[in-house]
Amino acid sequence: MRRLHLLGCLALVFCSGLIFTNEAAAYPQFIAKGYTNCASCHYAPDGGAMANAYGVATQQAFLPDGVGVEFIDELRDTLSKNLVMGYDDDDNPAFQWDVGFDSRFLLLMASAQVGSNDDFIFIPMLIEPQLAMAYGPVTVYGSVSSRKNGAERKDMTAFSRHHWVQYRMDDELSLRAGRMTQPFGIRHADHTVYTRRDLGFDKYDQTYGLQVDWNTENWSVAAMGFAGNYLVGAPEVQERGLSATVAYQWTGRATVGLSLLGGMSELSQRLATGVFTRAKLWGHSYVMAEVDTQLRKATGGDSSQVDLMGILRLGWYPWEWLDVYTETGFKMVAGASDLTRVSAIVGAAWKILPWMEIGPYLRVLHSPDGGTQFQIIDQLHIVY
User: Which of 65, 90, 138, 295 has a C-alpha 20 to 30 A away from that of 327?
Assistant: First the structure.
């Protein structure tokens, strides 16, 4: 009975997606729609933070007109974002502000779910209000969410993943200081992929640092000196170092880039390098690929370990509101083939409203012990 009820709910959401279809929050796969650069749609020059007024306007551009539903037009006006540039129409410094919201909820059924007797597990992954304020060339940004702080799921504590101050020197160059994610590779929306989690870019793995961003029509450069997470982990594991990404963009067609990260803590040190690309293929199809290496060793030790990881994603937008894709990933440890991990995904993402998306997918995980797990996942993403 529980399965029938859940399937009915998913079917209802799917049908609503067919009625109210449009654009949603920006993702790297939007290269299929001609978006090669994240800076124009986000407050953070390298993307990943709250969408600005232009970003939301592009989302609402696909909200259907003339459907005879009055509340649709009211929602369009009510949920329009404030223009936060730090200057008024006469180009004088002015105080401006904007708010946002990001939340993700996940429904999971696995073939071998440990520690649970339920077929389906509901996981509230993220509930995060956001705030941006600007005066002249200065922008202040912050977000508040929660983080598990104990053995029980109910043991949660308030947590800020991102908070920073930015100074815009001109339209292309800016300087930021605060808590951010290091610039490296493709900022995939799924923090569990091997090229994110296994490189230290998990959900709460932001770090304090100073970052320079330079964005032109064809170039995107981000370089960051970081001093450690400090909100998570003991002092001896706090990593300090440098991270940088350089990408070249063919407007509306493709992006190719290189990444480099070097870090050291009291216990370990590492050097990571990577290459990545996002490209629009024929029609509204696309490809995203990234391959990274990571050399790790204990501080003061002689032995080292080399990791190789990557992802490949092929997708297609048959309609503006539907992304159908397949994605595979791997992680290998040099000289230890028995530690190889592989994942494969077939899924879709439906844009129900500009601020709402559902994403059902099937994931197969092959672990080093030779076991294979099948996962059926449905994710609800609400963002404003």
Answer: 295
